[in-house]
UniProtKB/TrEMBL annotation:
UniProt keyword DNA damage, yes or no: no
Necessary cofactors: Mo-bis(molybdopterin guanine dinucleotide)
Name this polypeptide is given: Molybdopterin oxidoreductase
Source organism: Saccharibacillus kuerlensis
Record bears the keyword Metal-binding: yes
Lineage top rank: taxon: Bacteria
């Protein structure tokens, strides 16, 4: 492992000694840090890192250190709520709420059938919950409309893996990050989105000088500061960049021809598409200098090992799946997969979004089974003891497709579990209008923006108040033990689902209850049998083993009792038609292929190289909207701040939304630091203060998406387009068109007024007043002259974050700049 020493990060607030420490795992980002929960007087009072956990050796990020505070928030939901005939949410008993839900479900099934019901869940739940959603949804209700906010976050991870390797499951692991000579962080601002993993990387680099880090990002992020080479590309040009780099690898003679011949198909078609992407053409499209591209091409050609990570910068961009497939192509062409220090590590955003995909709570069936494969449906029918004809089949439908179905009156019920779509979905006014048409069940810890459209709200238990497992980004299954009982009136997600199944009287074909388990561990034991023989086989896992080993990476079997560090070490891929998780899709159009089309490829255990063609973003700057808009996360907050916004420390670090603007654009517009501007897109507008610098490119505005109350007009997703990637159906949050509108009032200069006097009246500096009015000096103003004054100037107190807690002042990039 990379870490040389433990460091136990701790955040505890307790009068006197705590009563006990309870084994758990962090429930925020996807890194999967081991931790222990502090309990005093049957309340959670803090957290500390688990020094024995190999992922973090006791370290925690700022969000992880403060996640427990939301559990004690005074505005926790403690009773179900039902919307009254007067339109108000009023308290109700659990029986009243559940019986209303059951009656609505039965009505929808009778009137429109199973696919009039959608279950939309989270990436922060437990594998046992997701498996139960799969069973309740498909074998109970018979609906195929299961999706989650993972569609917005990391759906592209799954689809690029299906395209190239035949099944989900990222090939490399964090152990490979510890060993690799070269690390390419592609659209992955790991310093802010996975702070402990970034510290792990930089800890090794500070000791050994390795790995060589290539950071690909249109912004100069904190991650970029620690990189050796920054590829600052224009928005929406991921595929041209990767095609250009891969073409250079081929031109440099660095392809592993023996590996390509034995273990891949599709090389010739892929190669033909790359030929146009010369360094000059790639530079023209991406904006990256030719010499910088050639240096990246040289490194990628010569490195003996390579790990490539991806996150939202890749997943939420135009041609997301094509870009991630191109990264897979790079590894396959170089033969850098299935061995130490090598492989793509397509990340997850949320702590357990990977488990949702694995357990079948979203598009495909449990344990990586293909919903278009009759043999896989027969397997599930036998395992669940149901009639196969009752199981829904065919391609999955993502949330954006489901919104279209709602607009077409095809869906009547939307069960929203643990997520806040009316902040997180793109073009959120459209989403609000659509969800306002259907019966919405909301299962959450707090009232959120989505409460506005909810008809029934069910109060759910939080982290530390329930037991279960999660799967982090590198396939590690982690255990979380219950530390305290949930507040009175609150139930776990699993208990709510089990109660629903019982009230609906779901039965198997022998007349027995469809769901026979009653505890998380019993659910996991059933799940293990579902996973047997599949790529994610977990038959060798028990709760005790997970605690004893501090997590295990699947597959875990009798042959691999301590798990699997990396996939495909035998260079046998899951591409045999009858075993594959998917028949894949047409790489350009996204059309699902048939069994015969997939079988005709004759991959039969070999990886598939795909041609990756450039398709520019559907929306481009121009006309009334001349600038690019992109969105992203901050180190201090998680998604829509439902939990992190209730931590005093995290909220104080970043209390409100803002926009980043390049200093040249600010100068051109006469905009000053902290000035509140209006940003308008074809879909809506927001008003936020400005941070000015060189973190973003000219012509690009960055807005964090965490802030989204209906009253504050700071929600980035008022602006974002709802175009989706043709394969993964993931929205392209990263590229929308927008414009800046200044919000100003006029000041008429009176006799005796000076610039200094006027600036003081508006609590501005003289320098800022001059910038706003594009004046060179404070002299020469005239009586009756009109000066512009911003209607509001705010401090933007985003606290800087130093991820290393060690000397991070000198980095290779800073030294070059000097």
């Amino acid at each position: 492992m990379s870490w040389q020493n433990q460091r136990i990060d701790m955040n505890v607030y307790s009068q006197g000694e705590i009563d006990r420490w309870v084994y758990s795992t962090c429930n925020l980002c996807s890194i999967g840090c081991g931790c222990e929960i502090a309990v005093k007087d049957e309340k959670i009072v803090g957290i500390r890192g688990n020094g024995n956990h190999p992922i973090n050796r006791g370290r925690l990020g700022p969000k992880g250190e403060n996640q427990w505070q939301a559990n004690n928030s005074p505005d926790r939901l403690l009773s179900p709520l039902i919307r009254s005939e007067h339109g108000e949410l009023v308290p109700a008993s659990w029986d009243e709420a559940m019986e209303l839900i059951v009656s609505k479900m039965k009505e929808a099934l009778a009137n429109k059938g199973p696919n009039s019901i959608s279950i939309y869940s989270t990436g922060q739940g437990f594998l046992e919950d997701y498996y139960t959603i799969a069973k309740v949804g498909r074998a109970g209700l018979g609906t195929h409309l299961l999706d989650a906010n993972t569609r917005l976050c990391t759906a592209t991870t799954e689809f690029c893996l299906l395209q190239s390797f035949g099944a989900d499951g990222t090939p490399a692991s964090y152990d490979d990050v510890d060993e690799t000579e070269t690390l390419m962080l592609f659209g992955h601002n790991v310093a802010e989105t996975g702070t402990v993993l970034h510290e792990r990387i930089m800890d090794r680099k500070s000791r050994t000088g390795k790995p060589y880090i290539i950071a690909v990002d249109p912004r100069k992020t904190l991650t970029v500061r620690g990189a050796d080479l920054h590829l600052q590309l224009r928005p929406g040009t991921n595929v041209p960049l990767l095609n250009g780099l891969l073409n250079m690898v081929l031109q440099n003679g660095a392809a592993d021809q023996d590996f390509i011949a034995k273990h891949t198909i599709g090389f010739e078609e892929m190669r033909d598409v790359l030929e146009e992407w010369t360094p000059e053409r790639t530079s023209e499209v991406t904006g990256i200098p030719v010499e910088t591209l050639k240096e990246a091409g040289r490194v990628l050609s010569e490195t003996p090992s390579l790990v490539s990570t991806t996150l939202q910068g890749a997943f939420q961009s135009a041609d997301a799946t094509a870009a991630c497939v191109a990264i897979n192509n790079m590894h396959l062409v170089r033969g850098l997969i299935g061995k130490p220090g090598c492989g793509p590590l397509h990340m997850a955003g949320q702590p357990s979004s990977s488990a949702n995909r694995t357990a079948g709570g979203v598009g495909t069936y449990p344990a990586h089974r293909n919903p278009m494969n009759p043999q896989h449906l027969e397997e599930m029918a036998e395992l669940w003891n149901v009639d196969v004809s009752t199981l829904p089949a065919g391609p999955e439908k993502g949330i954006e497709e489901q919104l279209e179905m709602i607009e077409q009156d095809q869906i009547d019920i939307f069960w929203n579990i643990g997520t806040n779509p009316l902040v997180s979905l793109p073009n959120r006014k459209r989403a609000q209008k659509a969800l306002g048409k259907v019966f919405v069940i909301m299962q959450d810890h707090f009232l959120t923006e989505t409460s506005k459209v909810a008809d029934v709200i069910l109060p759910a238990a939080m982290w530390g108040e329930k037991t279960g497992t999660m799967e982090n980004a590198d396939r590690t299954i982690n255990l979380l033990r219950k530390a305290v009982e949930p507040p009175e009136g609150v139930r776990t997600d699993l208990d709510i689902l089990l109660d629903f199944a019982k009230r609906m009287d779901f039965r198997d074909k022998d007349g027995n209850p469809l769901i026979s388990y009653s505890t998380p561990e019993e659910a996991f034991e059933e799940w293990k049998e579902i996973s047997r023989g599949r790529p994610c086989d977990m038959t060798g896992i028990t709760y005790k083993k997970l605690e004893d080993h501090n997590g295990l990476r699947w597959p875990v079997t009798d042959d691999r009792p301590e798990g699997t560090v990396r996939l495909y070490e035998d260079l046998k891929f899951h591409t045999t038609a009858d075993y594959a998780q998917s028949y894949s899709k047409d790489q350009f159009t996204g059309r699902p292929l048939t069994h015969d089309e997939y079988a005709d490829k004759k991959a039969d255990g070999r990886a598939i190289l795909h041609a990756t063609r450039y398709n520019p973003p559907s929306e481009q700057p121009g006309g009334d909207f001349p600038m690019w808009l992109t969105t992203g996360r901050l180190v201090w907050h998680w998604h829509t701040r439902t939990k992190t916004g209730r931590s005093p420390y995290l909220q104080a670090a970043a209390p409100h939304g803002y926009a980043e603007l390049h200093e040249d654009d600010a100068r051109e517009h006469g905009i000053v630091e902290g000035e509140v501007i209006r940003i308008t897109s074809p879909r809506g507008w927001i008003e936020v203060p400005v941070k000015i610098g060189d973190a973003v490119q000219r012509g690009l505005i960055f807005v964090p998406f965490h802030f989204g109350s209906w009253e504050s007009n700071q929600a980035a997703n008022e602006l974002t387009a709802d175009f989706v990637d043709p394969l993964s159906k993931q929205p392209t949050f990263k590229q929308s068109a927008c414009r800046i509108d200044k919000l100003r009032k006029q000041h008429l200069v009176a006799s005796g007024e000076t610039v200094g006097y006027i600036a003081e009246q508006y609590s501005m500096s003289v320098d800022d007043l001059l910038k706003v009015n594009k004046m060179e000096t404070p002299y020469g103003i005239q009586i009756g002259q009109q000066l512009e004054v911003p209607i509001s100037v705010m401090n933007v107190p985003v606290q800087p974050y130093m991820p290393q807690r060690t000397d991070f002042k000198k980095t290779p990039i800073e030294e070059k700049d000097e």
